[in-house]
Amino acid sequence: MLVSLYRYNPETDNAPYMQDIELDIPKGKDLMVLDILNLLKEKDPSIAYRRSCREGVCGSDGMNMNGKNGLGCITPMSEVVKHDKLVLRPLPGLPVIRDLVVDMSIFYKQYESIQPYLINDEPAPAIERLQSPEDREKLDGLYECILCACCSTACPSFWWNPDKFVGPAGLLQAYRFLADTRDTAQAERLSNLDDPFSVFRCRGIMNCVSVCPKGLNPTRAIGHIRNLLLQRAT
Amino acid sequence: MANIKTISYDAIVIGGGGAGMRAALQLTQSGVNTACVTKVFPTRSHTVSAQGGITCAIASADPNDDWRWHMYDTVKGSDYIADQDAVEYMCSVGPQAVFELEHMGLPFSRTEQGRIYQRPFGGQSKGPDDPTQAARTCAAADRTGHALLHTLYQANLKGGTTFLNEWYAVDLVKNSKNDVVGVVAIEIETGEVAYIKSKATVLATGGAGRIYASTTNALINTGDGIGMALRAGFPMQDMEMWQFHPTGIYGAGTLVTEGCRGEGGYLINSEGERFMERYAPNAKDLAGRDVVARAMVVEILEGRGCGPEKDHVLLKLDHLGEETLNLRLPGICELSRTFAHVDPVKEPVPVVPTCHYMMGGIPTTVGGQALSQDENGKDVVIEGLFACGEAACVSVHGANRLGGNSLLDLVVFGRAAGLYIEERLRDGFETTAATDAEIERSMARLKRLNNAREGESVAEVRKDLQNCMQLYFGVFRDGDSMAEGLKKLDAIGERVRNTRLTDTSQAFNTARIEALELDNLYEVAYATAISAFERKESRGAHARNDFTERDDENWLKHSVYFPLEKRLGKRDVNFAPKTVDTFQPKVRTY
Question: Which residues lie closer than 8 Å to B244 by C-beta, 6 or more apart?
Fold first, then answer.
């Protein structure tokens, strides 16, 4: 199989380039893309990428594989390799530090901007705060986000305004706290989002939904935030 | 000063997993100038992979639940070498620590009463007199570790904790009195090396499952804190005690939670027999993990394994129904489809015992204070050094950890370390500064590597090390074969000290990090091997073919490995809890 790998080392390369590497894949094995990178790195230790859990829960190895964002560790070859070729690039739209490693600062900054923590001004009880299973269920499909950035870096609105549009990952978490019955800061949270960019730059093209490796739906969450903002305005 | 940048804090926490972030949160909230130094962005830490839950007597599933019953289960699970004062502290403070997590926003699953959902886990009873299966493990579906880690990160953002993300700690810095006064670390993105000076250094670097070829652990679990402490000459406790989790997915090693069996799943062999009924008639599939893992290996060795190679068994879940599986075990369904290519709704999951957890580590007090021994075998404090979580051995797990106790350990003792350090600093704790030469000494390893153009391939040596540990120091152990394993380890050690670094660039050089990690893996592996060879009995996770019985006369003790002499000593187990009667050692049956 041919792996075409995005390479860039700021100390030695004037510009990024694609390195084509032939790789023998052990017969009968449907390796994950991360396994392939690990095989390549055994031969060439200078290849740089992030990885940790290797089971799709830590969000380290978001990358662009044959044109689509996803996690290398849970993307099998059978799903992504076309015509015996695999093209691996860093997540699009973020500055590249080296090879597949991108600078995620602006992504994290947007996450922080939505106050991603429970706010509750009332004194905490001696035990847990009670929440019905129905109210808890409202958090399903929201809290599972792993901050891999596959969604936000697949979003043209985020590419265009990464400093002003919160992006699908941040907005999914914004809604996770808006939807939490234990949170008392809904009004403040909505005020923070009430501008032409933070939420409304989403054009509903659902790239985020199609790439999310956890099967989450940021577009739907953004829709709920829009509704809350509109209700508030009227 | 040495020829590198110095950054100063009152306290630093090495590691941004559950223990590290709980300690950092405690310190930051009490106004201590603290930095959390972590080699990956905090939410990429291995705590994220914990699934089933956090065991704690919060009396939701059973209003009469009692932390003393949890304590009893934990002591029994440990095969009686957990320190009873530490277990008492964990189980009694636990509810408060769990409620704090809920108040921070952790999205626990709920009961109809709105309380935290608790599920049954292995080794849980209703006390010494009632072996009824308890349901004591608080869960957020089967993603409790993810929910916990993200909640702690969020709480730290709210609290304003300083994070040095993607910084790799290389070695401890010691002053003339042998006190720890910080670390030398690399900022991975730039390659810049700095001395991070601190009065209190907390090692919360997690486990080292990567010493084995087959492990549920993340690729980052390379025992960096253990390696650093051993190189600094500090002892390790109970390093022979490694937990093999019964249900790692066959082939991939990824974990499927014990909660699967808690929710009603069970193991079957090639004859379709629920074999745990033979090994643990009462608790069956929810016996201690060591018991279940050994039973599985015996089934496989006696020819009742499944598959063409007869080398695994099956975890049956389909009888639970699609609705329960989707509600309670959604992550497991996902992992099984991805890594085992089976849908648990329809077919059983192929599983095999897989290295999961390091019960041993840096001996500490309840407050996280790292300990050594003087020449008379008396505990002495290592000034400036603290540890919590999997890297520490406080010890609440002894020879075998109960499921759901690792998450409780890391929040309770992360918090306790924070509280204790704050108190020490408030009392005006000061250390003597390290000299340039002392800082330089902590850079020796890095310097050797940076100049090693020729030598061994890191990937190859690592693979040989992992295979050696798997083969000679696995679920069942034997003196002769361990002696052979030790010889091989000696040879591998020569190669570890002679690894090469062909890529000398500064920016995000992961080849350099992996080479440094290999040194740590080796330190952990060697400590494990000596400890396993010297403990001549079977207890908990340490099962020997040549010493098949538990030997309370000689080994109702912690083992303590001294790296400079490569010698194994012993340390007394604490049998003096403060508020309850001692749980006396008994024959351990389930």
Answer: B289, B290, B293, B353, B354, B355, B356, B474, B475, B541
Residue type, B372: S
Listed residue (B115, B119, B112) closest to B102, CA to CA: B115
DSSP string, B21-60: HHHHHHHHHTT--EEEEESS-GGGSGGGG--S-EE---SS
- The proportion of chain B whose per-residue pLDDT surpasses 90, expressed as a percent, equals 99
Q: What is the ipTM of this complex?
A: 0.98
Angle between the B510-534 and B479-496 helix axes, to the nearest 10 degrees? 150
Instruction: Give pLDDT tens digits for A110-134.
Output: 999 999 999 999 999 999 999 999 9
Please give the order of strands across the beta sheet that includes B266-268: B242-249, B349-358, B313-316, B266-268
Length of chain A: 234
Q: Which tokens go with B250?
A: 């066959």
Q: For residue B321, give every residue at least 6 positions away whose Cβ sits within 8 Å of its Cβ, in sequence order, or none.
A: none
CB atoms within 10 A of CB B111: 15
Residue B203 has pLDDT above 90, yes or no: yes
Contact B193, B4 (CB under 8 A): yes
Residue where the block lists tokens 């390479």? A7
CB contact under 8 A, A117 and B157: yes
**What angle (nearest 5°) sits at the alpha carbon of residue A176, between those of residues A171 and A181?**
145
| Contact assessment for residue B389 and residue B368, using Cβ atoms and an 8 Å cutoff | no
Q: How far does B264 lie from chain A, in Å, by closest CA?
A: 21
Among candidates A128, A131, A143 on the partner chain, residue whose Cβ is nearest the Cβ of B147: A143
A97 at B interface, C-beta within 8 A? yes
pLDDT greater than 80 at residue B327: yes
* A74/B105 Cβ within 8 A: no
A78 touches chain B (CB under 8 A): no
Nearest residue, CB atoms, B219 vs list A54, A99, A130: A54
Pairing of strands B5-14, B34-38: parallel
Residues A70 and A63: beta-carbon distance below 8 Å: yes
3 state SS of B285: helix
**CA-based max dimension of chain A:** 63
The whole-model pTM stands at 0.97
Q: Which residue of A has its CA nearest to B100?
A: A128
b/e per residue A7-44 (b: at least 16 CB within 10 A): bbbeeeeeeeeeeebeeebeeeeebbbbbbbbbbbeee
Say how many Å lie between the first and final Cα of chain A, rounded. Answer: 58
In chain A, positions 211-230, which contact chain B (CB-CB < 8 Å)?
none
Residue of A nearest to B104 (CA): A118
The pLDDT tens digits for A20-47 are 999 998 888 889 999 999 999 999 999 9
Q: How confident is the model at residue B2 (pLDDT cuts 50, 70, 90)?
A: low
Give A-chain residues touching B114 at CB under 8 angstroms: 130-133
Chain B residue numbers with beta carbons less than 8 Å from the beta carbon of A51 are: 219
